[in-house]
Amino acid sequence: MGVPEKTLITGEEILEYIPQRPPVVMVDTFYGIDERGCARSGLTVTADNLFVADGVLDECGIVEHIAQSAALRAGYMNRTMGRRVQLGYIGAVNDLKVHFLPPVSSRLVTQNMVEQTVMNVTLLSARTECDGKPVAECRMKIYLEE
């Protein structure tokens, strides 16, 4: 996957597309959605991140990053259609595989693909990489409030 060349949204502007607020913001870049519908987002792991312990991002931080990547995708879609950003909740995490815990200063890139949406529930698959190496993958069920 690697780091995409094109960046659509970064910095403080990210906050316009997600419901989370500091210090629990786990995405810092949105690269966009490709022609297949695959969204890509990123995060640089910093030492002051709430989910960093002993110099690495823990499993909870990886899952939260994936969930916020999904929220960023949904927020981007809503904003482009003139709608508000919705609050979302993780309904389930399935088939989670964590390959390694990325150290501080790592650049994570996560891709997520919607597999199915029924009413307010979205099932997606996600994969997170660091320097082209798999960090984690999972399937996630997200519930979005109306």
Walk me through what this model shows.
It comes from Alistipes onderdonkii. InterPro entries: ApeP-like_dehydratase, HotDog_dom_sf. This is Hydroxymyristoyl-ACP dehydratase. The chain is of the alpha+beta class and 146 residues long. It has a single domain, classed as Hotdog Thioesterase (Thiol Ester Dehydrase, Chain A, Roll), CATH 3.10.129.10. It is 15% helix and 42% strand. The chain is built from 1 helix and 9 strands, in the order βββββαββββ. The chain has one helix at 59-80, and strands spanning 9-10, 29-33, 39-44, 52-53, 56-57, 88-98, 107-118, 121-130, 133-144. A 7-stranded antiparallel β-sheet has the order 1-2-3-7-8-9-6, covered by helices on one side. Strands 4-5 form a two-stranded antiparallel sheet. The radius of gyration is 14 Å and the shape is globular. The model has no long low-confidence stretch (mean pLDDT 95).
Topology (SSEs and partners):
Layout: E1 9-10, E2 29-33, E3 39-44, E4 52-53, E5 56-57, H1 59-80, E6 88-98, E7 107-118, E8 121-130, E9 133-144
Antiparallel strand pairs: 1-2, 2-3, 3-7, 4-5, 6-9, 7-8, 8-9
Give a short overview:
The protein has one helix at 59-80; strands at 9-10, 29-33, 39-44, 52-53, 56-57, 88-98, 107-118, 121-130, 133-144. By secondary structure, it is α+β, with helices and mostly antiparallel strands.
Number of strand segments? 9
Structural class, from secondary structure content?
Answer: alpha+beta
How helical, in percent, are the residues?
A: 10-25%
Oligomer: single chain
CATH homologous superfamily label: Hotdog Thioesterase
Largest sheet composition = 7 strands, antiparallel
Q: Total number of helical segments?
A: 1
Mean pLDDT across all amino acids: 95
Examine the coordinates and then state which fold CATH places here, giving the name of the CATH topology.
Answer: Thiol Ester Dehydrase, Chain A
Tell me the count of domains.
1
Strand order of the largest sheet: 1-2-3-7-8-9-6
Estimated radius of gyration: 14 Å
Give the helices and strands as they follow along the chain: EEEEEHEEEE
Distance between the termini: 33 Å
CATH class bucket:
Alpha Beta
The fraction of residues in strands falls at 35-45%
Outline: globular
Provide the low-confidence segments as ranges. none
In CATH, the architecture is Roll
